[in-house]
Amino acid sequence: MNVWKLTDAEKLTRTDEPLPEPVPGKLKVRVTKVLLCDSDVAVLRGSAKIDYPIIPGCFAIGLIAEESGNAFFPKGTRVVLHAFRPAPDTGTSKKDFSEDEYLTCGRSCDGFLRDIVYLSPDEMTALPDSVGDEQALLLHHVAFAKATVDTLNAQKGQHISVVGANTLGIFICQLLIYQQTSPMLVDAKQSRLNFAKGAGIYYTALADEDLIDGIAAVTGGRLADGSVYVTGASGNDPALPFLCCRHEGRVVVTGLPPCNIRMDLNTALRKQLTVECISNCADYLKTAINLFAQKAVNIDCFHSHSAKENEVGELIRDFVSREERDTMSFDYITLL
Question: Which of 45, 16, 20 is nearest to 30 (CA)?
Answer without folding.
Answer: 20
